[in-house]
Design goal:
- The structure is a homodimer.
- Chain A is α/β, with parallel strands linked by helices.
- Chain A folds into 2 domains: 131 residues, Aspartate Aminotransferase, domain 1, CATH 3.90.1150.10; 245 residues, Aspartate Aminotransferase, domain 2, CATH 3.40.640.
- Chain A is 35% helix and 16% strand.
- Chain A is globular and about 70 Å long.
- The two termini of chain A are 22 Å apart.
- At the A-B interface, α2, α4, α5, α9 and β15 of A face α2, α4, α5, α9 and β15 of B.
Chain lengths: 390, 390
């Protein structure tokens, strides 16, 4: 049997109905989603202030174990504000993985800053700390307490790590590097709600971090995101700057900095509250889906189910398989066969340095990211696929 | 009786209950808001793609008489994209009124451009075309077909006009100036859905224009906005750039420019569809509220109800009164008396050049805007205040 057929067969363990279309990830509404959104519409409290926004923020802070969570319009907006609050300015460089969704690089560009692409490691799919350390030794220097790129003369003002598909990056050595070079760390945790690094939820080690609740994520608010941080001052500032930076006053409109309209409306936060109530259940269902895949792919030569790292816990947001090097040329055939069978699959994102607007950005050797891009395939991962354990 | 007491008494014609708090503007849900949002939640189609987004965009284009409408996250996002598509780049100048909500200036700053503040006229509360024409004669010059500020050397790449509180700006002479100086015109129609300039809906004369559906607007989607344009190419590009600039492909993630995540989620668009169905009714109710105020304030010395201009039709988004020059010093007393009586009122926005981040921006004489700021007071204007005609 061809590799493509074997992959289709394995995925069928979670996606059994040949008549059905299986998206990569769809929302699961099994709680109070209807009740809370009805409440918003009935009371006409649908907009940017409301009890669900406050409650959602509290639930997020509690769940992630951070001191403050700020609900915003989406994950891109969250990351944009993280960068601003990390002090990124026009013409700075920001280190970020080449293997990421385009929003990571775009958020850097919104600041007028330049993405500087770093390689990933196969062990986590995220930033490779060893390789980064070696690289910084050769290109970075500290001047007046700040890190500069010797080659471009530009300040390196932040490192973004991204927990790809929900798999946590190896944070300890990364934090060490950031401390050594005085580079503020931001965790792009858009894909990793429910993922843990050494028993601590992702997003806790960055000075400020972002979450996403887009429709394809583990939980959704329609569109939405959040900023999380353990720095209460940064948290206050994040709330202020995402709500137009208006000084509280009974009637005056005084703003003392360039603010943003990045609020999450109350009706979207209402969905978020309901989703948070069911998050533990969604995560166990997703774990079951992953376990099923693990068994289903165990016997297939030339392809491997990607498991969580030993040091952490993944939310298995989007399950993925990695083709063996010998089978890399089969990737598009597998993608075609699965999609033709009504099973949505997709490769990793095209690496950032291959996109026209980022092709001239500085970068290190990206051979591992290239290798991952050539062999990775995401497969359907919705919680509602669970319950068919075998 | 003091002026403050007379004002309270006049407002009581629309806001009769002394025990109630009357906000400036609250949402009125009298149609299919519940039904459509329930449909989204029941089907789990809440996110960035969905039938309500498409329908809402069609309804907006039809209602405004424009060729294309693109629903986005909010009015600020819409204006940001209008500026990008008008060609505004880093270090350009953009002419805009000093008398506006801070989002207008912020959207310019997001482009790395510099707001250049122009004066308003009492007749419209918007940009004064005569004064602008005289000003440009003294500071502007055309080089290689583009307009430059002779004093700063910077390109002037756009003019934003804003239909303040729903009152249409005098567009004909403004369009003439823009043509003469080759300055692309953008209409910030955030406040003016249902407002017309010479029988044409506001937003049609800019090369591209913005709307807002924030919770305090005439209709609301929780948070939301739209871009409208009669240029189909710009419209296509606006849709593309607000949805991450991703080339359509079955599985590949190829983006060829810096895009934005400015989508409006389907559940918010569902509210929008229901609101659009009732918009005509909301507008007549708002007209009735305005007519009531007009009568109520007719007999009061020292204060004038601000009516629509002879050349157009206002949606009376936020009704307003203007104190006579002699009574300007009473403004804060009137604000205090009304707010203390449970009647929310507020002054005009603090002029942009008075905010610390915009204090050094170029500007013309702003004496009329200063005068308006000193004497204008917004008063409660929700459609649900109607029905008490007297």
């Amino acid at each position: 049997m061809s590799l493509s057929s074997q992959v289709v067969e394995a995925i069928r363990k979670n996606c059994p109905d040949p008549e059905k279309f299986y998206p990569l990830h769809e929302p699961t509404f099994g709680g109070n989603e209807m009740k809370y959104t009805q409440d918003c519409v009935a009371t006409a409290w649908v907009s940017s202030v409301g009890k669900y926004v406050d409650t959602f923020e509290e639930m997020l802070a509690t769940f992630t174990g951070t001191k403050r969570a700020i609900a915003v319009a989406n994950g891109t907006a969250a990351l944009h504000i993280c960068l601003i609050l990390a002090g990124v300015k026009n013409d700075d460089e920001v280190l970020c993985p080449a293997l990421t969704f385009v929003a990571t690089a775009n958020a850097i560009a919104y600041c007028g800053a330049i993405p500087h692409f770093v390689d990933s490691e196969m062990k986590t799919l995220g930033v490779d700390p060893l390789k980064l350390k070696e690289y910084l030794k050769s290109i970075a220097q500290i001047k007046d307490g700040e890190c500069y790129n010797k080659l471009t003369g530009r300040r390196i003002k932040s490192l973004i790590v991204m927990h790809a598909f929900g798999h946590p990056v190896d944070l300890d050595p990364i934090v060490e590097i950031c401390n050594e070079y005085n580079i503020p760390l931001i965790e792009d945790a858009a894909e990793s709600i429910g993922s843990y690094y050494k028993r601590v939820h992702t997003g806790n080690r960055g000075i400020i971090s972002s979450l996403s609740f887009n429709g394809n994520k583990t939980i959704t608010t329609g569109g939405g995101g959040a900023i999380i941080t353990n720095d209460e001052e940064l948290g206050k500032l994040a709330k202020y700057i995402t709500t137009t930076a208006k000084k509280p006053h009974k009637w005056e409109f005084y703003h003392d900095m360039i603010g943003y309209n990045y609020r999450m409306p109350n009706i979207n936060a209402a969905l978020g509250c309901a989703q948070m109530e069911t998050l533990s259940d969604l995560l166990s269902k997703k774990k079951q889906v992953a376990d099923n895949y693990k068994k289903a792919f165990a016997g297939i030569e030339g392809v491997e189910f990607y498991d969580e790292p030993s040091f952490g816990k993944s939310n298995f947001w989007l399950n993925l398989i990695i083709l063996s090097k010998e089978n890399a040329m089969e990737r598009d055939a597998v993608l075609a066969a699965t999609n033709d069978a009504g099973i949505m699959t997709r490769p990793a994102w095209i690496l950032m340095q291959k996109l026209p607007m980022y092709k001239d950005c500085p970068r290190m050797d990206l051979s591992v990211a290239e290798d991952i891009e050539a062999r990775l395939i995401n497969i359907p991962s919705s919680p509602n696929l669970a319950g068919k354990s075998y």
